[in-house]
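Deliverable D5.2: sample structural annotation.
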Amino acid sequence: MDLGTAVTSAWSSGISMYAVAAILGIGGRLGWVDSPAFLQRPAVIAIALVLFVVELVVDKVAYLDSTWDAVHTFIRPVAGALLLGSSDASARTVVLATIGALLALLAHGAKASTRLVVNTSPEPVSNVIVSLGEDGLVAVLMTLALTAPMVAFGITLVLVVLSAVVVFVVARSGRRLLARRRTRRT
C-alpha cells in the first residue's frame, strides 16, 4: 500500500476502523489498491462490514457512542499500526507502526473528546449530525485514498493538526471545568 493511502487509512481508522478495513479489503480484492492480504479475506471483509453496521447504529446514540469509543481506545491504534506498518514506505516497520498507532490514537482522541462534549447537549440531533459528519469524512478520505493518495495524504496532514488542536482544547477545557467544580465544593 502506498504511503498516502496508508497514512490516510491509519488516521481514518481512529474514527471508523471497521469502515476502513472493509473499504481496503474490498478495494484490494477488486484490484483498486494494494491493501494487506489479511484484509482481503472474505471472512475479514464480512466481519468488518457487520461491525461497521453495528458501529454506524451505536455511534448515533448518545453515551452509548462514548462507551463504544472507550472500548475502541485500545483497538483503533492497533489498526492504525497495522495499516501504516504494512505500507510500501522505506522506513522501518516498527517506526511506521508506531506512527500509525499515534495517528489513529490522535483521530480517536479528537472523536471521543468531541463526542463527550456533544453528549452534554440536551437534544439528540447534534449527536446524529456529528456522527454522520464523521462517517462522511471517512468515506471521502478513503475514496481519495484509493483514487488520489497524495491528495488524501495532504488533507490527512491538515486533519492531524486539527485533531491535535481539538484534543488540546477539550482537555484544557475539561481541566478548567474540573478545577471550577472542585472550587465550588470547597
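Annotation notes: The helical segments are 3-29, 42-58, 64-72, 76-85, 93-119, 125-147, 149-185. The mean pLDDT is 92.
The annotation will be released with the project's public dataset once the embargo ends.
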